[in-house]
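Table S2 (text version). Query chain:
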Amino acid sequence: MRFLNNIKSCFTTLLFFTILNVCGQSSNNRFVVVLDAGHGGKDPGNSYHGFIEKEIALKTTLKVGKFLERESDIEVTFTRKTDEFIELVDRPKVANKLDAHLFVSIHCNSVVNQIPSGTETFVMGLSRTNMNLEVAKKENSVILLEDNYKTTYKGFDPSKPENLIGLKIKQEDNLYSSISLASTIQDNFTNNLSRKTRGVKQQPLWVLDAAKMPGVLIELGFLSNKQEGEYLDSDEGQTEMARQIANAIIHYKKTYFNEPYTSEDEIKPVVKKYVTEQPKEIVDTAISKPNEVVNIEPGKGIYKIQLFATSKKRDLFSDDFKGLKEISFTFQNGLYRYYYGKSYDIDYAKKMSAEAKNQGFPDAFIVVFADGKVSSIK
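Corresponding structure-token output:
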């Protein structure tokens, strides 16, 4: 009896959402896409090996938006653009209010076993496999962080399997369209990036159920798998994944308006134009104490600006350096130290230091390379 009452409660909730949602799409000729970066604020999502889902999801989502905003006939809206907590019920409301054509939510996966890897894309539906049920519980569990979740979700409990039965797809055409988009996304990941695919799956997810238009939830990969986590946490990985998602959306838009789609419509990687003299890797085992402060007479040694130190190697041409050029690095004791510029003049080095701070590196400081050592300058 309790099981039946729970089902009845869930279908009452679905009726509530159906009343809220008014049928119809945007009346103008622009294709409206709402991009949803999963989690945020007090909800970090998955976290393994120092990789944090809410941060990776946001960076990747913003990159997808940047790609799509190049298209004159695509209008992009984000549910969040900063590290803020957005209640699950409010995310699809953004898309419903705009009469959007697509709702795309971006996440990262994880499991206790650190071996699994691969991308997968979910559409709204009822799954009967234990693995998928666990994913549904995890993505729906953010409900419990909301202040009035018992009232908002009419007693829905994401931890109870019987409650998930109430989350049914409301329109068959939305399901078919969602599967079409999800399939293109997975194909792009596999064919263009050689990422392992775990396929397209149906899942009873609140964030998709409340959206009245086709929608997908993308799991970029497993943060619990260290190698995959490193890729997803890198600027290069986020850019590559974002480009494939954007291309899938453009393909879907072309199909929606019955327009031909060719390779010319794809967003291609930007070919980097390297200068003749590329930044050289400086690795000197004679470097003693990298953070030692000493007095150096101006004019001796080469001055550079240390930007930051990290255990992860960065692409010297990535966005991590905020447009600064002539980047080099050293590696010692498991740390990469990244430097900007070079000069034999201390006064010019001070100007470079000020420029680095203005570009977003408040902790930047001057170092000097001399006699096989690197030292910071007072």
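Notes on Table S2: The first strand starts at residue 31 and ends at 37. The mean pLDDT is 77.
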